[in-house]
Design brief:
Structural class: mainly alpha
Order of helices and strands: HHHHHHHHHHHHHHHHH
Number of strands: 0
Largest sheet: none
Number of domains: 2
Radius of gyration: 21 Å
Strand content: under 5%
Length: about 400
């Protein structure tokens, strides 16, 4: 029997969503590779990289706040098409900018478009795809985040330079834009189907709330999720940024070995989403998140309290434990807050995650400068314990109304 049109459309959109998450990750990790070339080209000080980061984070944060309203006006397909075009144009701006004063402001528009793609895709996926696929979608971001630096490295090493690297990535985002334009109506025609088990059924009261940003911010469940995402991204980014310093300066590990373990941490996040995506629907998302919270505490404890191999293995345990948290919480969002509030809530969660990943590692840096490397111990232990507690509350049974 031939597949029905709805099933074919859903399969096409799922495949496109996978490609979109890969494309979303492409520009995210390229700045570090391009930075030495940018410094030489524009005669910059090392601290100038902060100007790009601040502009990018500002755009990303703002887009999360605006995404819910934009989706109400343009639909998911229109939002994805417009946002992808904005990112592609921003990357073209990176490639063509003749001066630093024209280069770094472009980061705001790249962040604005990227944040809207992130929120729009997550809002759609949480309503239409299973928990397994949401985990795999986020694993695809890791594929993109690994591919982007490879493209930029090849462009610089083989002669064309960083401008060619950004041009190639812009072309890939341009192709995604065309794909979103061609399918923009299909995204909004797809009927929302909840493929999740009974444990994720939204309370009736949540389904009755009128969809608006104000209504979302008036929900205790929304604020619980906002706090969870802030703690999660703060912990993930802080460990990723500071584990190398901890391993080299705090544990006396060599540069190459510490670099390999740091790479292993990020790899465990990506691989964990692939592997644990299978388990989410078998063991239940609530149980998986609670176990993830406990695993994160155990991983941090091993990393900061144990010397030698146990401490380094704690880094991998932490990565595997954190892997399913972001996508699984995102997949549960419609059940927590109801379909009417989902698009606004997802935007707030993306903004909260952006703040956590940018502010907390910076706070750790300030504390390290004042009190030494033990600040890493204190902050990561507090964050992991807070995350485990928040995940316990977030997975508690919803009271009947």
């Amino acid at each position: 029997m031939p597949a029905c049109p709805d099933m074919k459309r859903e399969t096409r959109l799922l495949l496109l969503a996978y490609l979109a998450f890969i494309s979303l990750g492409l520009p995210d990790a390229t700045l570090g590779i391009a930075w030495p070339s940018l410094r030489r080209a524009f005669e910059l000080s090392p601290s100038a990289i902060g100007m790009v980061l601040v502009m990018g984070v500002s755009g990303y944060f703002l887009s999360g706040l605006l995404t819910g309203g934009l989706m109400d006006k343009t639909g998911v397909g229109g939002l994805l098409a417009g946002s992808s075009a904005l990112v592609a144009l921003g990357l073209v701006g990176y490639a063509l900018a003749p001066t630093w004063s024209l280069f770094f402001p472009v980061a705001f528009f790249v962040g604005l478009g990227s944040g809207a793609i992130d929120a729009g895709l997550n809002a759609y996926a949480s309503r239409h795809f299973s928990v397994k696929h949401v985990n795999w979608l986020h694993a695809c971001w890791g594929v993109g985040a690994s591919t982007g630096p490879a493209i930029m490295t090849a462009a610089i090493a083989r002669g064309p330079g960083y401008r060619a690297g950004y041009a190639v990535i812009a072309a890939l985002l341009g192709a995604m834009t065309l794909a979103f334009v061609a399918t923009r109506r299909a995204w909004d025609q797809q009927r929302a189907v909840d493929p999740r088990p009974a444990e994720l059924s939204a309370p009736a009261s949540a389904r009755e709330v009128r969809g608006s940003a104000r209504a979302a911010l008036g929900s205790g469940q929304v604020w619980l999720l906002i706090a969870s995402f802030f703690c999660y991204t703060g912990l993930e980014a802080s460990v990723g940024q500071w584990c190398f310093s901890w391993l080299t300066e705090g544990r006396g590990l060599g540069i190459e070995a510490a670099g390999s373990w740091t790479s292993g941490y990020w790899a465990s996040l990506t691989l964990g989403r692939v592997a644990l995506g299978w388990l989410a629907e078998r063991v239940g998302t609530a149980r998986l998140l609670r176990l993830a919270g406990l695993g994160a505490v155990g991983g941090v404890a091993l990393l900061v309290l144990a010397a030698g191999w146990p401490g380094r293995l704690g880094l991998l345990l932490l990565g595997m434990s954190l892997a399913p948290v972001y996508p699984t919480l995102m997949a549960r969002t419609p059940a927590h807050v109801g379909p009417a509030l989902t698009s606004h809530t997802v935007g707030f969660l993306v903004s909260s995650g952006t703040l956590g990943s940018s502010l907390v590692p910076g706070l750790v840096g300030v504390l390290v400068e004042r009190v030494g490397l033990n600040a890493i111990v204190a902050v990561t232990l507090v964050l992991s314990a807070s995350l485990a507690l928040l995940l316990r509350f977030a997975t508690a049974p919803q009271p009947a109304h």
